[in-house]
Amino acid sequence: MSNPTVSAIVTDIEGTTTDINFVHKVLFPYAHAKLPDFLSANSATPAVAEQIDAVRSEMGDPDATLEAVINQLLHWIETDQKVTPLKALQGMVWADGYQRGDFKGHLYSDVAPALRQWKDSGKALYVYSSGSVQAQKLLFGYSDEGDLTPLFSGYFDTHIGHKREAASYQRIVTELDLPAEAVLFLSDVVEELDAAKQAGMQTLQLVREGTQPGKHHACVTRFDEIAL
Ligand SMILES: CSCCC(=O)C(=O)COP(=O)(O)O
Ligand SMILES: [Mg+2]
């Protein structure tokens, strides 16, 4: 497919640029193992204390003990809940892992060449993930393909809204200051693509191994099938 009407591309991460297994079998278990000690050691640090208070708010219990907060966070990891303070704290814990070389951000082999080509041809590139902006920058900054962060013009996380809600994509379009139809959203998840399309964006589903294709969005299996 060739599409010269696209000025900006917004990409999802998990299942789109990156193997779901890297997120679920490397990142989430790492956060699950490290969060308790990280929170016990850093609970007085202002950036961490702010997120602990946000967890207490989500729990509806402003007096929850640190132990209760930790148990809540571990439960959210086990059930893959996209709760904003969990995502912020995961990003902080993963920073250690990336910096120590415990893992690198996984990217499918077709992703970095396509991102470079789109950037060179004048497209603006953005990320929209439930992972925090810090986590997104870490994954692309410490990726298997080196530091790809210079390719991106911006990052969006759940502070802009949840990924299955059209209003989130309307806010992104407003931030990009572009007509919605000039923005292409890439994701593996049909509900996210439906929300982006409702906001007027162009959409394309990445059907990586194990992904079920939907009926209402054009599909590709790799980034190098996308001609812009
Ligand atoms: C930013 S890397 C970690 C991804 C993550 O935490 C997550 O929940 C995946 O969300 P996505 O919106 O990329 O499916
Ligand atoms: Mg995804």
From TrEMBL:
Pathway the protein contributes to: Amino-acid biosynthesis; L-methionine biosynthesis via salvage pathway; L-methionine from S-methyl-5-thio-alpha-D-ribose 1-phosphate: step 3/6; Amino-acid biosynthesis; L-methionine biosynthesis via salvage pathway; L-methionine from S-methyl-5-thio-alpha-D-ribose 1-phosphate: step 4/6
Cofactor(s), names only, from the UniProt record: Mg(2+)
Annotated EC: 3.1.3.77
Catalyses which reaction(s): 5-methylsulfanyl-2,3-dioxopentyl phosphate + H2O = 1,2-dihydroxy-5-(methylsulfanyl)pent-1-en-3-one + phosphate
Cofactor detail note: Binds 1 Mg(2+) ion per subunit.
Family: Belongs to the HAD-like hydrolase superfamily. MasA/MtnC family.
Assembly information from the UniProt record: Monomer.
Name by which UniProt lists this protein: Enolase-phosphatase E1
